[in-house]
Amino acid sequence: MAHTAAALGLTKPNVVEPLQVSFAAIGIEPSDWEGDVLAVAVTEKDLCRSPCSSFENAVLKRLDSQLGGLLSEASAEEDFAGKAGQLVVLRLQGQGFKRLGLIGLGRSAPFTAAACRGLGESFASVAKSARAGSAALALASPGGIHGEFKPNAAAAIASGTVLGLYEDNRYRSESNKVHLKHVHLIGFGYGPEVDRRLELANYVSSGVIFGKDLVNSPANVLTPGQ
């Protein structure tokens, strides 16, 4: 039997640790959060400056003050205007968070599930690049998302984050380990209802990943007996 299996050249997948990311919605100021990476989702309007070149947005203004003007300086140098798809990440020292990222949303905050999933994927790319074990996503303007949509928005972002972290490394000689374990969402409300939506989104995303693994499995691995 062993000789037959060898002759067939059965593919042996690598043992890959499943994604295990916890999500929680919390009600604190983004500048007070502590962890590896703090990402702030900003619209083009959020980047408006006062005549003295400081941010008018309260969240960005507080962060910039905490960083001694580094945020406004870096965003100007990188020509970051909050356009959709734009990213800028700063490595910091002496702060509660090791990195601060800005994620551009374009002209307005996401108001559809698809847009929120896209934001989650962008957030995942920031966390992966930083090899972060903990990360938080905050909205520069929490009021940009209507209150009744916030639980759904948080759930869609969680789904996008999990799917954005996913890579099928089972058949690669070298795999990229996902370090992210804990995610906090700031500005999306908090409480039992949001927690329930986040937990459900995590389960559903895990199911989607399981389906992708099945589809991507070679025929000599995913046999009828399995």
From TrEMBL:
One BP term from GO: proteolysis
One CC-aspect GO term: cytoplasm
InterPro entries found in the cross-reference section: Leucine_aapep/pepB, Macro_dom-like, Peptidase_M17_N
Domain of life (superkingdom): Eukaryota
Pfam families for the chain: Peptidase_M17_N
Residue stretches making up the Peptidase M17 leucyl aminopeptidase N-terminal domain: 58-174
MF terms (GO), sorted A to Z: manganese ion binding; metalloaminopeptidase activity
Annotated protein name in UniProt: Peptidase M17 leucyl aminopeptidase N-terminal domain-containing protein
